[in-house]
Design a protein that fits this description.
It is a single chain. The protein is elongated and about 70 Å long. By secondary structure, it is of the alpha/beta class. It has 7 helices and 15 strands. The strands form 4 sheets. The protein has a 5-stranded parallel sheet, sandwiched between helices.
Length: 234
Amino acid sequence: MIKCIIIDDEPLAIEILKDFIERTQDLQLEASFVSATEALAYVERSDATLVFLDVQMPDLNGMDFLKHLNRKPMVILTTAYQQFAVQGYQYDVAGFLEKPVAYSQFLTVIHKVKKKQEELALFEKTDGHDFLFVRTEYKLMKINYADILFIEGMKDYSKIYMKGKDKPIITLQNLKSFEEKLPGRHFVRVHRSYIISVTQIELIHKSSVLIAQHELPISDGFREQLNKIIQLHS
């Protein structure tokens, strides 16, 4: 469920967004404000993940609101003036709604918000540890995520290339099992045979990535996922 807050000095605009939120699955209205100044403190302490923010308000306009906001929920700007859209995206807003807002336009932006939320959840995937154990040569070896350069899949087994080690660690785990365990914010599959550590990337070429003097291919089918993670770190 996505908790929402509406900030708009026009009561009619608030009522329209309230109606849209009530009609839309997975959305829940937490609060609404006609004053951005009053809303600022509330948003800071709230766990709401989505804010509908009017740009032009008398006490504190939308852009100034974003400047003063320390917590960073997803924000959708609402305004009758398109020129504010470009300025808003400088603050990494999640979307833009032009007044008068149509429900079809609202649904399009909400679809993008839900997709972004799913991607962030994937990238934050973790079991709370910064290491894993792998079985190799009849023993269990602890491997710290920070030491992994990349992992090469070889059908039924994998080779784990580590910092400071001349030879890779060989384990009977397949590449898919590592893809499911490793935190998605720092590890990404770039090819059917390779998972790489984003922190270990030295250079990215058009169709390959360089890690510790190893040039690894990037497949078209995995390129989009790599680009998304690079954007998170940019």
